[in-house]
Design brief:
The complex is a heterodimer of chains A (238) and B (568).
Chain A (H helix, E strand, L loop, with lengths): L1 E6 L3 H12 L4 E7 L2 H11 L3 E5 L7 H5 L9 E6 L3 H9 L4 E3 L4 H12 L9 H4 L5 E6 L2 E6 L3 E7 L2 E6 L3 E4 L3 H7 L3 E4 L2 E3 L4 E6 L5 E5 L4 E4 L1 H10 L4
Parallel strand pairs in A: 1-2, 1-3, 3-4, 4-5
Antiparallel strand pairs in A: 6-7, 8-9, 8-12, 9-10, 11-12, 13-14, 14-15
Chain B lengths: L1 H28 L14 H21 L1 E3 L2 E3 L2 H12 L1 H18 L4 H24 L9 H22 L3 H55 L9 H15 L3 E6 L3 E6 L14 H9 L3 E3 L16 E10 L5 E10 L6 H60 L1 H20 L4 E3 H19 L3 E6 L8 E3 L4 H11 L7 E10 L2 E8 L13 H14 L4 E7 L3 E9 L8
Parallel strand pairs in B: 9-11
Antiparallel strand pairs in B: 1-2, 3-4, 3-7, 5-6, 6-7, 8-10, 11-12, 12-14, 13-14
Helix pairs in contact in B: 1-2, 1-7, 2-3, 2-4, 3-4, 3-5, 3-6, 3-7, 4-5, 5-6, 6-7, 7-8, 7-10, 10-11, 10-12, 11-12, 12-13
The chains are: A alpha/beta (238), B alpha+beta (568).
Chain lengths: 238, 568
Amino acid sequence: MLTALIIDDEAPSREELKALLAAHVDVEVLGECSNAVEGLAAIHRLRPDVVFLDIQMPRVSGLEMVGMIEASALPRIVFVTAYDAHALKAFEEHATDYLLKPIDPLRLGKTLDWLRTGARPAAPAYPGLAPALRHVPCMGLNRIFLLAIDQIEFVHTDLAGVQVVSATRQGLTELTLKLLQERTPLVRCHRQYLVNLDHLAEMQLLENGGADIITRSGRQVPVSRRYLRELKDRLLIS
Amino acid sequence: MFAQINHIALVGALLQQMCVYLVVAYLLSKTPLFAPLMQVTVRLPGRLVCYLVFSGFCIMGTYLGFQVDDAIANTRAIGAVLGGMMGGPLVGLAVGLTGGLHRYSLGGFSATACAVSTVTEGLIGGVLHLYMLRRGKAYLLLDPAIAFGITLVAELCQMTIILLLARPFDQAARLVAHIALPMMVSNSFGAALFMRLILDRKETLEKYSIAFSAKALRIAERSVGVLVNGFNAHNCAQVAGIIREETGVGAVAITDREKVLGFVGVGADHHLPGMAISSAHTLRAISHNEVVYADGAALPYGCSVTKDCKLGSCLVIPLRGAENQVIGTIKLYEPKTKFFSSLNRTLGEGIARLLSSQLLSGRIEEQQRLLAQAEIKLLQAQINPHFLFNALNTLAAVIRRNPESARQLVQYLSTFFRKSLKRTSNDATLQDEIEHVDAYLHIELARFADRLQVSFDVPDDLLELRLPAFSLQPIVENAIKHGISQLLEPGTIVISARRSHEVLTITVQDSAGLYQRRPESDGLGMGLVDRRIQLRYGPGFGIETECQPDCWTRVHIRLPAESERGAC
């Protein structure tokens, strides 16, 4: 049994793919999403075996989206595109599976056969395909928005999830702290915090060996003892 | 009695030498040396020439004079006075000094008096020059009557000075009694005639250049725009006809590098358009890129077609195109019975330059036209891949769900492609453009389903207005590609048109507000549309963009409101 998720911004496209997959009894479509932000949430929530991922999508492309998922949480990805000479070249180089729209049912059958064998590329090559992370998709006040990396003051986890904070906005993201630490210039300063040092206004050293960072917009970010040394090195303070 | 006869003889003799004097002046007027003298001079080089020439005349006047009572009756005053009048007080002084010192060196009882009086005469001319210049009446200096008067005054002064300075006085008085009348008469007349000579020379030159300019201007006026439309037999014959009428030469021919394109005039019966070039002169003009003038004497001219040809001389001037390459020649002929006037020679070369630049600008226009066509092709080619495959994919889905609406979609798709491919001309009506966009949008509506809404707001009376083809679709495509398709929520596109003060403004508004000035390659379609409109209507028209981030982007296409226009 293969569980699948369809992420594509065009309704007719999703409809068509769903219809084609319906011909394969061992494939169960868990859901469909019309953009990358919904897609990220659905991947984390539904944990599908395979994601059929459109490349051209609003704001965050399929390729960018793949870069927003931690390697361990990454399902098998089958890229779907109508025409993108650039991406096709990259797929060939990275031995990534892809389908061309309109989708040929025979080609889809072969892809499914291959997926059923459970074979995975030796090392997931998707992050190599993904362009650098430029912004972080967030949910806030019932609205999806993108925060540019250089706008972010800090990121922290709380009970609700991962909170992204800029001078003017705040929202929940599907991206993990670990991934943000790896793929962005944000710096770890606490088990639950990443900070953007470009927004640092001052740092107050505390008696317990830790510190507090005050950001340009006056917000307070804790620095734990464990990360203080590293942070000082980065700031060239001894 | 004897004294009386002597008087008249002296007048005659002086007038005679004045004639010699004027002949020299006349000959000099044919040389370039005379050019600065033809106007009242204020510049240094002109003054220098003025000094040299009039000093020469001054000395010549002394030599041409003859002995009277141990003194010299002469026409020296003309040089000094005119030098002062034309060159100013300094030149007058210098000429007077030169002439005076020269006279002094010849000796005689009146030597000092004559030297002083020559300087005085030069100064009198100079003072008049200054006076007239100050009064803003410099033109009066060239008036022969004024020259007559002032020379008369100067001669009176001279006589007075002789009486005052020359000793013994009785000899001086006798001398003055002898020479006063002849010198006053001959010098004044001489000065007036000299001035007349200058004026004549000036008028001739002006008439010549007026005639030349008038002819050149008329040829330019009549031939403008003819060759711009192409360097072919028809246009060349027309231009050759114009040149022949205006210059009055025997015949005019225009050739390209191989054959005669147009021939008008004497000998047109056997010099036929389309014939290969056979004249050695023409071949030489083409291969050496130089003007060849066969006047029939120094360089013999013989018709290369038939011995009976009446043409006797020929001027061949190369026509030069881009990078000074010879692209043909223009040939002016005169029959054996007529001289080739130098006016026509100069004119011929001017005409060749004129035609060359017309040909060049014709070529540039042609290139711009080709460029515009190539850009249409580019716009057409740009549509294809993304749009086509997405459309086909949409179609595949719709066929499954609703065959009837799929059939409609196929209709829209074919309408869109047909209209895209048919646009080879540069021109369309607003209606054409709206239909093109409408077909396009129907496919995008199916593709984006509930994410896209479209509305048109175009008054019917604007539908007949004309605009460059392919102006609207690329803008709408941009609004979808960089606008609506990048929205996470549904979006709207509004296409409207307004006319005010003979300017048509078409506005495409999307509800995304994501417009950013993009690097060249991305906004290719929009950039091309803008450039084509500006190229055609000037920099006041074209595309203007405004954006309210996250609210809307508006792209305005501004054009003159034209309803009729010839194919371009």
